[in-house]
Amino acid sequence: MEINSPRIDEVTFTETGAETRHPPMYKVLLHNDHYTTMDFVVRVLETVFHKNEEQAVAIMLHVHHNGIAAAGVYPCQVAETKVDTVHTLARENGFPLKCSMEPE
Predict the structure, then answer these.
(1) Residue scoring higher pLDDT (60 or 1)
(2) What is the DSSP string of 6-47?
(3) pLDDT tier, 21 (very low <50, low <70, confident <90, very high otherwise)
(4) What is the pTM of this model?
(5) At what angle do helices 76-92 and 38-47 cross, to 10 degrees?
(6) In a 3-state reduction of DSSP, which class is residue 2?
(7) Nearest alpha carbon to residue 85 among 73, 99, 102, 75
(8) 70 - beta bridge partners?
(9) Fewer beta carbons within 10 angstroms: which end of the chain, N or C?
């Protein structure tokens, strides 16, 4: 009795046509002002953006000297949450620190 089994050398390929897309990314920007302390900006960078002290100080100094710097790049909803978090922390601590986002 012969059993019909698929031949091992037969290969079936399927084409999906769907590409994997990455979500659009957004830069979260910190803006310089004349009232927010450098220490507070460093603390925000460490806590909200998870930067180490060296990175946080470098970004803070870039903001201080150039008026603006990117704190990180994230998908839209994450970037929106980080902007909101920065604004909340700044207001709770009496600072006018401005944070914004723009497409990368």
Answers:
(1) 60
(2) --TT--------PPP-PPPEEEEEEE--SSS-HHHHHHHHHH
(3) confident
(4) 0.79
(5) 140
(6) coil
(7) 99
(8) 29
(9) N
